[in-house]
């Protein structure tokens, strides 16, 4: 348990105290000197518990620090103590909550901007006291104090233990898939489920903040981008939408828990890999499939070309058939104030949301063309000395399928050298890293009369 060099009893007149950005216990009364002393000690307590929580969750840096709390506007930390333990007492647990403005998907896959969503941000009970009911005790205190209900809480990358906690104590299992790091349980958007929270409104509604948005992602990916299950559900509900057999959601079964929570995907990657068709929709709703250039069609054409088959009914190869690449473990991120989802998707069996994984090697190649294909056999620069041969690199500036250039110096990423004479040593005093200086000094042309483009880059092949 977290013991300190000072007596914690003055800080903890109650078993549970709450602390906000002033870093003082909500019970605090004292003069300026006592205030400074209390904030200093409380900072130490928060930093220690935050550190223990991070270690317990396998995070490489704490989600909770005194400094972060001090800078926050709407976060509260609840601390659970046992002042009877030892001479100075001990602190046994921490629960950090706050409100967030989030873009969320509801159960029909519509994007909603929910302002001041109740959020569980960090939760920790010391290992020696876990599974003894203290977590529930602390959580219930917070719910009462904040006037929240569990089903209305969003949870920032819940751990496996916390998922079990919600299942055991509140019967919450089924989640609404999100594309950000937050997990919502079914019922979050229900009006009636919010009646028990005291004011008859959901937390979001009570803050006047929930409305369907026309976010860029909704326009880009459509509201029915949830795959078959969601399409069926919405089809049952309103009878207007039919599942499109060509449109499978991009699904990856990932471990649930803090690291298993979905990461936002790169919007640019989505656009590059999936958005080149005129329809502009990657997964698409039933309505979105009208464009002649959509991915399914392009992929089918590619398949036909590859197999040499011209059967009209060749099977369609969709994103769901492609092997997802293993996802690197995401680092813990500071809680975003506004999180914009990229794509919704169907919940995996674990009932936790997973990130959409776009892996369109073939599609990307079909879009870009053969220029991007690597040769069947290629010599590396180890084989060819310092001569590098690059295919497609720098296509943005050279309309050639092949580029050759000398490599006399070390490789650095992203440095583009222009106008240095091909193969020549750099003259003394010439700035080797400044393209501008070489532009003016050489006149811009090589012996062959061409501009010399020099690329320094990491190994790409
Ligand atoms: C947004 C976030 O903060 S995510 C991070 C959540 N925090 C962590 O994972 C840190 C490590 N875990 C903990 O600190 C605690 O286990 C907490 C805070 C999740 C729960 O506190 P506890 O005091 O253990 O909760 P409490 O005793 O009230 O409830 C126990 C239930 O929680 C779940 N739980 C607690 N520990 C575990 C565990 N090791 N394995 C699986 N489930 C667990 C179970 O449902 C358990 O019920 P059970 O013992 O009948 O199986």
Features of this protein?
10-stranded mixed sheet, binds acetyl coenzyme *A, EC 2.3.1.108, single chain, 461 residues, Aminopeptidase, elongated, alpha+beta, 3 domains, 12 helices
The whole-number mean of residue pLDDT values reads: 65
Q: Catalogue the ligands.
A: acetyl coenzyme *A
How would you sum up the global shape?
elongated
CATH class categorisation of the largest domain? Alpha Beta
Could you tell me the number of beta strands?
14
- Assign the CATH topology of the largest domain: Aminopeptidase
- Unreliable stretches (pLDDT < 50, length at least 5) are 193-208, 214-264, 275-293, 308-381, 383-412, 414-450
Order of helices and strands: EEHHEEEHEHEEHEHHHHEHHEEEHE
How many helices?
12
Structural class: alpha+beta
**Percent of residues in helical segments?**
25-40%
**What is the CATH architecture annotation of the largest domain?**
3-Layer(aba) Sandwich
């Amino acid at each position: 348990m977290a013991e300190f060099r000072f007596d914690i009893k003055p800080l903890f007149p109650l078993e549970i105290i709450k602390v906000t950005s002033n870093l003082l216990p909500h019970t605090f009364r004292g003069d300026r000197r006592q205030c400074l002393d209390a904030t200093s000690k409380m900072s130490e307590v928060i930093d220690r518990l935050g550190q223990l929580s991070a270690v317990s969750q396998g995070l490489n840096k704490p989600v909770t620090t005194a400094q972060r709390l001090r800078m926050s506007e709407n976060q509260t930390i609840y601390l659970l103590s046992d002042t009877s333990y030892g001479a100075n007492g001990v602190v046994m647990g921490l629960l950090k909550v706050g409100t967030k403005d989030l873009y969320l998907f509801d159960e029909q896959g519509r994007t909603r901007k929910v302002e001041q969503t109740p959020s569980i941000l960090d939760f920790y009970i010391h290992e020696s006291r876990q599974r003894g009911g203290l977590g529930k005790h602390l959580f219930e205190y917070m719910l009462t104090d904040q006037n929240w209900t569990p089903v209305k809480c969003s949870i920032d990358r819940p751990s496996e233990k916390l998922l079990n906690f919600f299942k055991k104590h509140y019967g919450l299992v089924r989640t609404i898939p999100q594309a950000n790091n937050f997990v919502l349980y079914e019922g979050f958007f229900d009006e009636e489920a919010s009646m028990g929270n005291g004011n008859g409104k959901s937390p979001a509604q009570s803050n006047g903040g929930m409305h369907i948005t026309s976010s860029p992602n909704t326009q880009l990916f459509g509201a029915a981008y949830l795959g078959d299950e969601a399409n069926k559900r919405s089809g049952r509900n309103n009878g207007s939408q039919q599942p499109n057999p060509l449109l499978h959601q991009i699904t990856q079964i990932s471990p649930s828990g803090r690291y298993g929570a979905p990461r936002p995907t790169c919007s640019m990657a989505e656009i590059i890999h999936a958005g080149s068709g005129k329809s502009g929709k990657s997964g698409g709703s039933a309505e979105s499939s009208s464009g002649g250039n959509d991915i399914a069609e392009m992929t089918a054409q590619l398949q036909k070309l590859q197999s040499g088959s011209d059967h009209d009914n060749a099977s369609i190869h969709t994103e769901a058939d492609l092997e997802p690449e293993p996802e690197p473990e995401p680092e813990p991120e500071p809680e975003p104030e506004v999180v914009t989802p990229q794509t919704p998707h169907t919940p995996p069996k674990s009932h936790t949301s997973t990130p959409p994984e776009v892996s369109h090697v073939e599609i990307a190649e079909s879009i870009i063309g053969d220029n991007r294909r690597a040769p069947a056999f290629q010599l590396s620069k180890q084989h060819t000395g310092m001569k590098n041969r690059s295919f497609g690199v720098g296509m943005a500036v050279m309309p050639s399928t092949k580029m050759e250039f000398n490599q006399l110096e070390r490789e650095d990423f992203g440095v583009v050298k222009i106008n240095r004479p091909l193969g020549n040593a750099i003259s003394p005093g010439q700035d080797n890293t400044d393209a501008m200086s070489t532009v003016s000094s050489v006149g811009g042309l090589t012996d062959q009369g061409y501009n010399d483009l020099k690329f320094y880059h990491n190994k790409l092949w």
